[in-house]
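hey so i finally got around to running the thing on that chain from the lab meeting. sorry it took forever, my laptop kept dying and i had to restart like 3 times. anyway pasting the input first so we r on the same page abt which one it is
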Amino acid sequence: MEEQEKEQNKRINQHQRLINNLRERLKSVETDVEPDGRISEAFDALDNHLDDVEQRLSKRLDEHDKRFDRLEHKVNQLGSKLDIIIEHLTSINDLPEE
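ok and heres what got predicted. didnt touch it at all, straight out
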């Protein structure tokens, strides 16, 4: 019976170590997942980074829109000037009506 009792105690001790190990791992997971834990901090950092990228991208797009508007205005001015030059060179205004 002593051998059987030793075997039972051995199993109990193994299970106790396993339970203690699981408790420690659960504490670690809870620490990671809780609102101020590492996972939440990582998501907050990622969210802040994405906000920063979005702001920089928005600023760049606004700058490109302004440049495009200026370029479009200059192209329209050049088109008007070319129309005047072509009109002057071809003398379309001076054609006789009869």
